[in-house]
Amino acid sequence: MRANTGKINRKTYYTLLAVGKTELNWDDEFYYGIWLPMQGATLKDGRYSATTLSDKQLLNALEAMKQSGFKVRHANGNKAGNPKSRALADDAQSKMIRALWLELHAVGGVRHSSERALARWIAGQTKSSDGIEALQWLSSAQASRLIEQLKQWLQRIKKKAA
Description:
With 162 residues, this protein is mainly alpha-helical. The chain has helices spanning 10-23, 28-39, 55-67, 92-106, 115-125, 140-161, and strands spanning 43-44, 47-48.
């Protein structure tokens, strides 16, 4: 929710506060008349607005909602345990692939360290093999091949940096 500049993405926080308001069943009178002023909001166009909160106040407001029971969900709306959300593969080869991917991210080899970005890379590497898009779907041989590719990629980047 933070950009690389160190500033927060205010639109994301406004959206989270709106979703939290709905999920906590807060009516407008409570949210705008009591809760937002308690978070430090000031009047804007005749009512209190989250847009008047500082970055720190926005962060604190979201934390206050979480303490009231609001649970932030993934962008697709899934919570952990939802059948639509895929559990992470936890076998040794998958852990190695994920660790190498994160190391590549740390040294600047990949832009995004997310599981989604890793899945996209896997899909690209296994195009001729039915377009596998998750670590769970890899055979042992495919996983070994990907581990070796990641190791070589990492070595190339480290050599360039040296």
